[in-house]
Design brief:
This protein is mainly β and about 775 residues long. The chain is globular.
Amino acid sequence: MDSSDRRRFIKLAGLSGLASIAGCSSQNNKTPTDEAGTTSSTPSATDSETVVFTDSETSTSSTTTNELRFDGGSLSDFAAALRTADQQDISKVQIEPGTYRFDPLSAVESGSKDPHATIEDIDDVLVDGSGATFVFTNPTRAGLRFTNGSNITVRGLTLDYDPVPFTQGEIVELDDGGETITLALDEGYPSLDHEMFDTAARVWASVHESDGSFMSGVREKEFHDKLFSSIEKVGNRRFKLRVRVGTARGLAVGRRLTVVARNHGTALAFYMTDQPRLEDPTCRASGGACFSVEVCRDPVVQGTTIAPPPDSDRQVASDADGVRVVNCLSSAVVEGGRHEKLLDDSIVVQNAFTKVSEVVDDRTIAVELVHPFVVTEGDRLGAQAVDGTRKGMLPPIAAYEAAFDSPGKRDKPTQIEFEEPVAEQVAAGDYVGNFTTGSRNFTVRDNELRNHRGILVRVSATEGTVTNNVLAGVSRNPIELESEFVEVYAPKGRGWVSDVNVTENTIRRAGLTYFAGDHPAAIRLHHLAPEGVPTTGQPHRNIEIANNDIEECAQAGIDVEAARDIRIEENAIRGVNLLDYSAGGYGVLLENSTNVRVGSTSVTGSEELITAFGRREAVSELTSSGNQLVLDGDPTGAQFQRWTDVQFTFNRTVQPQADGRHLAIRCYRLRIRADGEILEEYDVGGDERGLELERGYFAPESAESGTYRWLGGADATTSFSVPGEALERADTLDLEASPIESGLEVAVSIGGDSRTEIQFSDGGKQWYEIEL
């Protein structure tokens, strides 16, 4: 609409209540605002700017509600319809059924994820898109973004992209030991020379069976997706892709790939909006998340459908997360969703932390600029060290320096001043999160989430409930409660979890869709520290895991780490360690935790795959009662097997190549002996059975000397765990190894106690004795 049309519309609206805007019609309707309007017109998705408006009234209610109809035009016309509804107190915008193709409203630099449209300051409007589909035409950019409004409801709208932000095809040839793939692209999908694959934040591929389903049943401790060092066109819709990161594991002629152009943009987002609601929306594709609410008050996300169109052969839906609730205020609800075939996490509720770059003075800190960490005066921050140690809540914010003007009531800060001193409480390198905008008081319930590459419900927030969800098929953990300070794309972290109940969920096939990760469990609570930093803190507190029905797990049923005051009660766990993990074989795993109560929980499975009811390592104040272990139909004692940590600290490491690895020794085998008798022997370069490598190790390699792993790591420390009973009897730990260079030494500690130091010889592979 040009400026003269706009002025004419405003004049007519002021004269007689008639409205004139491209693609819209208006009527007065005395039905409640949440009732769908009716129409006898034919749906239209044209770019016409000639529209006839009508004004009619019914008398079914004593309350008059205005309704504005949108039945075609550009995305600019749709945005104008929303602004009109806001300005004229029209409570409902009805989108006529049909498909609407929308180009972005503005041009941006190549690779920008800016939305197709940003709609600001809209209040008290219901957008009813039941039967309507918005198709966004630029797969590198986000869809719709609402900012700084209130009481906005989007109902029934379907979102899609054309072209979709990925392509897919069949592996028709493998060369170079499986590291070079010839991929024949399916008709109707983008070519790999499309701009989106040049400008994406990340290009990678997932692996599928010949019918398009995710491949499954494969353990993969290292990186399980396929990244590429080169992509070369070799024929009509045929490309050669050279694997850069990861291995050829899972690749085979006849299997299929989905090659993703991930851009981190969201199909439909609310930012700094009070009381946004999503009711029964559908997302068919997105280069980033499908739906997000960030720094919003009391958001409700209800009845989302995220899946490929039912009549399509698409192998995936969203390239990234399904629903993201990040740094929200007061409360948040995500319920009744149905999600399938996502390439990342399905539902995320989190409090995003930022890194402290400097302690400026006793009351002031400088922080990194990350999204969506925002503050205002009076907000309360909490601090956490990267090793997981909680540093507690900080005093209220007295003042701050903003990086730039924000559209809402809070700003992204560069410096924060507190009402009282904090210099003794927080240090540079720690992380802080705003608990006023901490996504507290959340509820995730009644969702059905199936067959994802990522996690199904991921929580990094406090005071909430995850209940009555059906969760089936995922590569790692159907439910993951975590804090994390691993800087991947930005100095951003996720804070501790406390006062959360995980109850009455039905969980199937944990770690049995796609490649299983290194610690797959139906429910996992843990802290993820940066490489080289051990997790010594116990940030997670007061968690209840109860009345969950769990069946078919790649490794464990429940895994709790870095926590205290935990209640695990009345859970049924059937079929664990189905992928036969070398250190698996347990229904319940406990590590670095205090005051844990496990009661009335059953573990059922095969004696061939299960070692014991549970495993404990560095756990104090464990209470276990009323539990049951059933092996091949026979009840047996429900005991926790004790494991012990062994740590090698090298005097230095070497980086011989440009791949970034810090190497110290080749390790072939470990043996535990008592009086000359071998109690246990571990093939470090092979299947590692009975041993769990934790950090400071690399993928197996082979040479004439045998199979081995390099040990070392960024902090020159390797740690692993073994069953404690053997170590308690042992007097010698033998290490078969060869150093990368002369002069290397290692200090050995077991269970945190220093034992001895040894110096490696200049020769090749040999055994070294460590006296215990």
